[in-house]
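Structure in, sequence out. Go:
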């Protein structure tokens, strides 16, 4: 059974619909218009009744003008549009997401992480997050993996997120759980 067949009577999420090839767009449009499909190699049409949620980071109207997205498919999918602004436009969500991903990663890696230091929180709040929520999740997971137990400090904050004034303080103030090799690397980098 394919995804439409498995989603029958439920919901099917089509992630990154803006990246579909023209051939896939044509097949998707046919299923949405006719409410049925035929399995690959099959001969009997199968009814499909699923709620479709389509997501994309592309501006589909621009893709239509470029000729890479079908206008008729756009109008089939664009029944109830919901625009979710990028993370940099909704910074008030960052603290909730930080602690959600922190808890999730700490449990996954069985680490006793008690929180994130205020300077690191400020750096995370100030960053522009070009990779959106996925990037934030990966950064938090990375920091949990690299952190000793306790509070996450600036020594594990990825360099691209660190404010320049934090660089001078990272690595030499909180040495708990930091290897001699890491201290040497930081000292060499600062020199």
């Amino acid at each position: 059974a394919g995804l439409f067949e498995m989603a029958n009577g439920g919901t099917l999420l089509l992630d990154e619909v803006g990246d579909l090839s023209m051939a896939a767009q044509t097949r998707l449009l046919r299923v949405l218009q006719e409410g049925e499909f035929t399995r690959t190699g099959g001969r009997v049409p199968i009814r499909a009744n699923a709620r479709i949620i389509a997501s994309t980071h592309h501006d589909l109207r621009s893709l239509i003008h470029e000729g890479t997205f079908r206008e008729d498919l756009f109008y089939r999918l664009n029944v109830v549009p919901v625009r979710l602004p990028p993370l940099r436009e909704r910074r008030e969500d960052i603290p909730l997401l930080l602690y959600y991903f922190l808890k999730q990663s700490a449990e996954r890696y069985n680490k006793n992480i008690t929180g994130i230091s205020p300077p690191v929180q400020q750096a995370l709040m100030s960053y522009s997050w070009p990779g959106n929520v996925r990037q934030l999740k990966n950064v938090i997971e990375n920091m949990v993996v690299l952190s000793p137990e306790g509070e996450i400090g600036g020594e594990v904050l990825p360099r691209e997120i660190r404010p320049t004034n934090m660089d001078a303080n990272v690595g030499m103030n909180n040495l708990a759980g930091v290897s001699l090799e890491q201290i040497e690397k930081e000292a060499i980098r600062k020199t």
